[in-house]
Request: fold
Amino acid sequence: MKKKDWLKLAASIAICEGAGIIGSFYTAPAIRDGWYGALPKPYLNPPSWIFAPVWTALFLLMGIAAFLVWNKNWNLKEKKLALGVFALQLILNSAWSAIFFGLKSPIAAFFELVLLWLAIAATIWIFAKISRPAAWLLVPYMLWVSFAGYLNLSLSGILPDAADNQPIGCTLEAKQCPDGTYVGRSGPACEFAPCK
Reply:
């Protein structure tokens, strides 16, 4: 590859990773203030630490896919359309974080996620016409967003296994009662048990 191509690749990856950084501006405060931690989690909810490396890898694959399309000798009009649809799904990706974590609205975020999923599907379809490897690089992203849809729907409380069947893991804090005994946290909101 020429130097110009390496610069295009670096720019494509930086733009995609930048979308992830924008999303983290909304995610981090909601995790710090305990809002996300207090949501009842579904059985298949992965540990929180896994999200950052998975998204970093997915944004890297997105950047490479965008580069393959951008760098392909193809009809300029179709390339612009493909990259335009790609940009739309990237904007929708960042918007999901703003809605879910920023507005703290899992239900609205789920409906936005449906639009994101459709935009990813359209991107894969258009990319496949220009570069099959670029389209395949977006398949893990599509699968992860599909799984995220299940998580999102569960966290909204619409799916029963999230709120009704999942045991809650509360902290081991204890509160001293007036009679000198201690009570721990329990219940759906991890509140302190009442003193006797």
